[in-house]
Write a structure and sequence with these properties.
Distance between the termini: 33 Å
Strand content: 15-25%
CATH architecture of the largest domain: Orthogonal Bundle
Strand order of the largest sheet: 1-6-7-5
Number of domains: 2
Helix content: 25-40%
Order of helices and strands: HEHEEEEEEEHHHHHEE
Shape: globular
CATH topology of the largest domain: Helicase, Ruva Protein, domain 3
Bound molecules: zinc ion
Length: 260
């Protein structure tokens, strides 16, 4: 599933290509029925909160969640023939943006949007993000920290790859009860989440290992522990299991279980 960096980057890229222009808006597949309402209106703002994307048109706001399979494709106008299950097509004079497979693509009323935003936790990529509510909730829950990091009501935008990487970098076992996290560890976690997600927005992919001067890290070099078999630090086995309904990866030597 795309994590928050993808959605924030999409908001930036859509804004760069389409902002202020009257767009041709359609739903070639027909499933986004409100598309016709937006035809010919101007896009005035784009925004991302966690994994939710908002496109503010003059007359309405469109809420998009990519889910597991959603994807945007960008091409130069006039773009390819509208084939397959295209939920949304946005066309300016210069560009075509096609959306396929999202979990959600709907016009959202202001009160519904406010309700949605109120349910979301702190987004590490938001300029004015306040991590305090996340810390308060973490102190009160015995759920594993690895599951809590996926909970969008606590942190908005973190996903499966970032949670594994962050816990490895901090030496924290994913099954540790969240309330055992020390305040200094929470602070380090928040700082790291902000740095890594911002790097993800910039590089348009998840990269957590140090950059190498003069070349782009290869895909298999980009991550510390996610989807790896061997630990880069101790050369022990990276264990994979299911936590919070998704696969987690950890080195139990470098991320030991602590005695309570
Ligand atoms: Zn290790």
């Amino acid at each position: 599933m795309p994590e928050g960096h993808t959605i924030h980057r999409l908001a930036q890229d859509l804004s760069r290509d389409l902002l202020g222009q009257s767009l041709s808006v359609s739903s070639p597949q027909g499933r986004f029925e409100d598309a016709s309402r937006l035809q010919g209106t101007r896009l005035i703002k784009t925004g991302a909160v966690g994994k939710h994307l908002f496109l503010h048109f003059e007359t309405a706001v469109v809420h998009i969640h990519l889910g597991l399979f959603g994807r945007f494709r960008r091409s130069k106008a006039p773009g390819p023939e509208a084939r397959g299950a295209l939920r949304l097509r946005l066309v300016s004079d210069a560009y075509v943006w096609d959306l396929s497979g999202p979990t959600c693509c709907e016009v959202i009323a202001e009160d519904a949007r406010n309700e949605l935003l109120a349910r979301l936790g702190a987004d590490p990529l938001a300029d004015a993000a306040n991590p305090k509510p996340a810390w308060e909730r973490i102190q009160k829950t015995a759920r594993p920290i690895g599951a809590v990091l996926l909970d969008q009501r606590i942190f908005a935008g973190l996903g499966n790859v970032y949670r594994a990487e962050i816990l490895f970098m901090l030496g924290i076992h994913p099954e540790m009860p969240a309330k055992n996290l020390a305040k200094r560890e929470f602070n380090a976690l928040w700082k790291l989440a902000r740095e890594l997600l911002a790097r993800g927005v910039k590089e348009k992919r998840i990269v957590t290992r140090p950059a190498v001067k003069g070349r782009r890290l290869r895909r298999e070099e980009a991550l510390h522990v996610y989807a790896r078999r061997t630990c880069e630090k101790c050369e022990g086995t990276v264990r994979r299991w299911t936590l919070g309904a998704r696969a987690i990866y950890a080195c139990e030597t470098c991320q030991p279980q602590r005695q309570a």
